[in-house]
Amino acid sequence: MDNETLFAGYQALTLKRHPHGILEIVMGAAQSANGKLSTADHNLHRELSTIWLDIDKDPKTRVAIIRGEGRGFSAGGDLGLVEDMANDFNVRARVWREARDLVYNVINCSKPIVSAMHGPAVGAGLVAGLLADISIAAKTARIIDGHTRLGVAAGDHAAIVWPLLCGLAKAKYYLLLCEAVSGEEAERIGLVSLAVDEADLLAKAFEVAERLAKGSPSAIRWTKYALNNWLRLAGPTFDASLALEFMGFSGPDVHEGIASLRGRREPRFDASSPF
Predict the structure, then answer these.
(1) Residue 38 pLDDT
(2) pLDDT in tens, 6-30
(3) Per-residue pLDDT, 2
(4) Cβ-count burial of 228 within 10 angstroms (0-12 exposed, 13-18 middle, 19+ buried)?
(5) What is the rounded CA–CA span in Å between residue 37 and residue 72?
(6) Cα(169)–Cα(163) distance, integer angstroms
């Protein structure tokens, strides 16, 4: 299989090659053309889980940059996908596998990954954004783990990386309350590597990617591998959080979460729940 055939099947993600072996991954290009934020529908969620395996195999790629197109980095899960997960066991099981693979494939991808986050950064896109080896956010970015607002446990990347990056107390505050954190505050608490003015975001991401691409591949990749053992140690915590999240998709609260998001209102969860 040649290098271009490797990426031929990707449709929801737009891939662009740049000098020095930099591969740019763009989420939401088609949605942005219609004035919409990038949401993780069935196709985008699947492609986000597999792209890192293909990058790992691609000899032309030395560094990957992931970013969003238009008004934001990512707007979270498409409500149609969320409804399908809540109503169909087979969809729920498939998306659970993709969510698991997304986290572990980013961690295990040997090539360094740089993220450039602006505007809203939520959902599956945020998984890659915060697990990236160098995470760069616009100071005005709004990073939100939206799980508890939807009525499910904070699974995905949250339990594996937020406590490690910003400490358990801050992680609980932002994850339990579903509180937004700006890019500037995210840098202050250690949640992201760098925060820059939005006008400088993409240039900074390419500057960092070029420096990585020109470095020793073995030294950089092996350093990444060793450091990511901190994340691998948290594997059981991640697996438990993801299982609890997807158990929530079979319960009643997620339906109220979906209804409230569609109605643009605060959710009214049942206070009499035994949980």
Answers:
(1) 78
(2) 898 999 999 999 999 999 999 988 7
(3) 54
(4) middle
(5) 6
(6) 8
Provide, rounded to the nearest whole percent, the portion of the chain with pLDDT above 70.
96
Per-domain boundaries in the chain? 3-198+216-263
Residues 6+ apart with CB under 8 A from 1: none
Tens digit of each residue's pLDDT (9 = 90 or more) over 120-143: 999 899 999 999 999 999 999 999
Q: Are 205 and 148 in contact (CB under 8 A)?
A: no
pTM for this entry: 0.94
| Nearest C-alpha neighbor of 186 from the set 240, 152, 142 | 142
Q: Write the pLDDT tens digit of every residue in 204-225.
A: 999 999 999 999 999 999 999 9
Instruction: Please tell me the CATH superfamily of domain 3-198+216-263, with its number.
Output: 2-enoyl-CoA Hydratase; Chain A, domain 1 (3.90.226.10)
DSSP-assigned letters across all residues of 133-151? SEEEEETT-EE---HHHHT
Contact, 156 vs 143, CB < 8 A? no
- Confirm if 221 and 110 have CB atoms less than 8 A apart: yes
DSSP for the chain reads --HHHHTTT--SEEEEEEGGGEEEEEE-HHHHHTT----B-HHHHHHHHHHHHHHHH-TT-SEEEEEE-TT-SEE-B-HHHHHHHHH-HHHHHHHHHHHHHHHHHHHH-SS-EEEEE-SEEEHHHHHHHHHSSEEEEETT-EE---HHHHTS---TTHHHHHHHHH-HHHHHHHHHHT--EEHHHHHHHTSSSEEE-GGGHHHHHHHHHHHHHHS-HHHHHHHHHHHTHHHHHTHHHHHHHHHHHHHHTTSSHHHHHHHHHHHTS-----TT---
